[in-house]
Amino acid sequence: MPQRSSLAHITRLQAMKTGALFGYACEAGAILGRADPASRTRLMQFGERVGLAFQLADDLLDLEGEATLLGKATGKDEGKATLVAALGGDEARARLGGLEAEAIALLAPFGGKADILCEAARFVGQRQS
Predict the structure, then answer these.
(1) What is the mean pLDDT of residues 10-38?
(2) Pair 80, 4: CB distance under 8 Å
(3) Position with higher pLDDT, 129 vs 85
(4) Domain range enclosing 27
(5) pTM
(6) What are the two backbone dihedrals, phi and then psi, of residue 30, each rounded to the nearest 5 degrees?
(7) What CATH number is given to the structural domain containing 97?
């Protein structure tokens, strides 16, 4: 019988996948926009949170979503090391909300200039498909 992955292991795996991908995309935009170092760090951290939220939302949709709405098969993550498997649906949803809130809070210093990024974080956290 395969050993279950620890919560720390799953979190690290997802941070190194989707979190790193989104984080790099946001940092690259900050570099190209010639952001100061503090802003660059904030934007990278924002991307990391949104990336983790995206993965968590995707895992929740795989568990609870409708294949016809998603446009893909569901249930394919069964038996895989996911945060939903480790935490359960309710705690995973709570963590998703926390990641969304953290991402938006990181953008506070940018004021209205970050409205579109705040909307993107909300979309990721609340998506249904």
Answers:
(1) 94
(2) no
(3) 85
(4) 7-126
(5) 0.85
(6) -65, -40
(7) 1.10.600.10
